[in-house]
Design a protein that fits this description.
The structure is a homodimer of 185-residue chains.
Chain A: H1 6-19, H2 25-32, H3 36-46, H4 51-63, E1 77-82, E2 86-92, E3 98-99, E4 104-105, H5 107-121, E5 127-136, E6 145-156, E7 159-167, E8 173-183
Antiparallel strand pairs in A: 1-2, 2-6, 3-4, 5-8, 6-7, 7-8
Chain lengths: 185, 185
């Protein structure tokens, strides 16, 4: 297959990042069969910031929508938020989140990402987490990227049922949890 | 009833604190019907440090017993530890642990106290938290004292079942959780 021209590549790159802003430069370089440096130049010419910056920009635009808590109290960057329905956040794991004996991320960091995202999606002024049933499917290591998705599955009698799934950067599910929040006044 | 002599009071005070080191100066003053200042002087003469110091001393003597994690990774002061069976920890809640909108302690701090204590009681070199079913019974406020008790209820097929209950300083249960940890190698 003939290699794409620079113009074709840049057009396609722009389209790809508009659909999904989470491609890394490495992934794009591999896809287009060019060097990472070429992708960086493409981004520069197209005025597309680096992944970390793109994620941060997205997150900031979502924080204002949160009702139940202050946006900055969410652990992770808030990527998508449809209050009352759906939320997505990203957490980059680091060495200082681990149990030092195992080098595995402490369960309460993952729990905190899930719980705070679940709170953020709820369409109510004030809620309290009542019940959580959670499962850690695979150990999480440092330098991973956790993508959490929270969905409101039911609201009844001032109780909000929220399901949260967390995948790692290899798209493997590492956590799932069911939460019930109570509206309080 | 005749008020106890200083000698009688100090003898009884010493016995009380040997049985249960968690009495506050306020509680002791109220019990003996003397001023808090008198209790402080009694402690000074008897060489008994203040409550916070007593708790810290107890905790340090327990940390060395922990197998699964480093002692300092436990959230709260480890008051009692019988590895493979029972653990008790105390966490003083502070303003900076709260969701600012509600002034309620974030669920993941309570979860972290419970999870790290549950890990500490397990008699195995390395474990991973697999499943947790938890319930927050009452909102926890800052400036409270959370007393968590973890009990190993069963060990089977390298799975460790641990129940954790947390009471506040008024002896009301605020949290309970059931955890299953898997031994990993």
């Amino acid at each position: 297959m003939k290699k794409k021209s620079k113009k074709e590549r840049q057009k396609e790159l722009l389209e790809m990042l508009e659909k999904d802003c989470f491609y890394t430069d490495e992934e794009l370089a591999s896809y287009f069969e060019v060097s990472i440096q070429t992708i960086r130049l493409d981004r520069l010419q197209l005025g597309i910031p680096e992944l970390r910056e793109r994620v941060k920009n997205l997150a900031e635009s979502n924080l204002d929508k949160v009702k139940t808590i202050k946006g900055k109290e969410i652990l992770g960057e808030l990527i998508t938020l449809e209050v009352g329905s759906l939320g997505i956040s990203i957490l980059e794991t680091t060495e200082d989140m681990t149990y030092s004996k195992t080098n595995i991320i402490k369960g309460h960091y993952i729990f905190a990402q899930a719980e705070s995202l679940a709170m953020a999606v709820i369409d109510a002024p004030v809620v309290l987490m009542g019940v959580a049933n959670i499962k850690n499917i695979d150990p999480v290591r440092p330098n991973d990227r956790l993508i959490a998705k929270a969905e409101v599955v039911r609201v009844r009698n001032k109780k909000h049922y929220v399901h949260v799934k967390i995948n790692n950067k290899n798209h493997m599910q590492v956590f799932r949890g069911k939460f019930i929040f109570d509206e309080i006044s």
